[in-house]
Design brief:
The chain has 15 helices and no strands. It has 373 residues and is mainly α. The longest helix is centred in the first third of the chain and has 31 residues.
Length: 373
């Protein structure tokens, strides 16, 4: 049962995890949120459709699935790098939020006059160890993490909602870059998480059902039934996070919230470990995930982690969009998406082939301009 709803938990949790790293200094910038909504429609939505379609076509997890799909499409093995990048993106997200949790826990304990006599990097390393151990539980930590985070935020609501002053500001490429990055990371586009979730559900169905039930389920399949609930949930949670931005949370609430973050990060590390296990086996993959996450949290500044996440996730989504739009056979994707209207398929195809790559390139230019300035 938990596996079936893993994608929805992730859809609700990613905005809660990542909004704070990409929103502008003034959350009341109306033009930024309009750009974010535009990016959600023209970038994130087509990419999530592509991810679900490739999951259905490959009947395997992202890393193994890309090997099947490239052979089927007679495409270059370079496209398989999406599977590796997707695993890396999930580790970077986990490292970023664990780094934030380390800082947040220290701040909360300082308010409670209970700061431990340990260096900050030692606390961060300890949180990594806890998170890796939790990752062995698979999907189970997701509802616990969501519950802890919601309780922590509800404790902050006791002080009332923060006052937000909305106003229009100037639009530029840097603002578009932040909006696209927020749309990608809050949706999880380029992580392969929904691809992985679909694969878990498919395996469960194959194990539990007879051949006739599988055949009937296949004939009733439509990608929209999976994609739209996920996308709409992320929009709604994004609006809620916007309203809660700047809310003062008491120290106990902060500890609960950051504890929930660790549970969610454990699923991200579980996902990356499962992907790498396809090549290296479970134990080696678990150790590699642990070492890489530890290095990122302890040795890399948080601002650099944000930059790494932006670059890697953008490249991963660019690879996915070009592969789905230009390398896959049209007939295969049409069957995998199973739109009820041919016009919808044509719109999606134009978006994934042209709109998404162009939007991502403009966003990368915007980030470079921002970093250079």
């Amino acid at each position: 049962m938990m596996i079936r709803y893993a994608s929805y938990f992730i859809a609700a949790l990613l905005p809660l995890l990542l909004f704070r790293w990409f929103v502008p200094a003034s959350v009341g910038e109306i033009d930024f949120w309009l750009l974010w909504l535009l990016a959600m429609i023209v970038v994130s939505l087509p990419v999530v459709y592509a991810e679900i379609a490739l999951a259905y076509r490959s009947v395997d997890a992202p890393l193994a699935g890309m090997q099947k799909l490239t052979r089927e499409a007679d495409a270059s093995p370079v496209w398989r790098s999406f599977g590796w990048l997707a695993a890396l993106v999930s580790i970077v997200i986990a490292a970023l939020v664990i780094s934030g949790a380390s800082t947040g826990v220290l701040a909360a304990l300082t308010e409670l006059n209970s700061v431990p006599d340990v260096p900050s990097f030692a606390l961060a390393a300890g949180l990594i160890v806890i998170t890796v151990l939790l990752s062995l539980l698979g999907v189970a930590p997701l509802p616990i993490g969501l519950g802890l985070m919601v309780v922590g935020l509800l404790m902050g609501l006791a002080n009332g909602l923060p006052t937000t002053h909305f106003a229009m500001t100037g639009i530029n490429l840097s603002e578009w870059a932040r909006a696209v990055a927020l749309a990608l990371v809050s949706v999880g586009a380029g992580t392969g998480l929904y691809w992985f979730g679909q694969n878990l559900v498919a395996k469960q169905v194959i194990t539990a059902n007879t051949h006739n039930v599988q055949k009937r389920a296949t004939s009733e399949y439509r990608a929209t039934k999976s994609v739209l609930p996920i996308w709409i949930l992320q929009l709604l949670v994004g609006v809620v996070v916007l309203l809660l931005s700047g809310m003062a949370v008491p120290p106990i609430g902060q500890l609960l919230y950051w504890g929930g973050v660790l549970f969610v990060a454990s699923y991200l590390l579980h996902y990356s470990t499962q992907q790498l296990a396809h090549k290296f086996g479970l134990m080696i993959s678990l150790m590699a995930t642990f070492v890489l996450a530890l290095v990122l949290v302890v040795a890399v500044p948080t601002t650099w982690l944000v930059g790494i996440l932006v670059i890697v996730s953008t490249v991963a989504v660019l690879l996915l969009s070009i592969f789905a739009g230009w390398q896959m056979k049209i007939s295969h994707l049409r069957k995998s998406l199973n739109f009820g209207n041919e016009a919808f398929y044509n719109l999606w195809r134009v978006a994934i082939r042209l709109v998404v790559p162009l939007a991502l390139l403009l966003a990368l230019i915007g980030w470079v301009m921002q970093w250079l300035s």
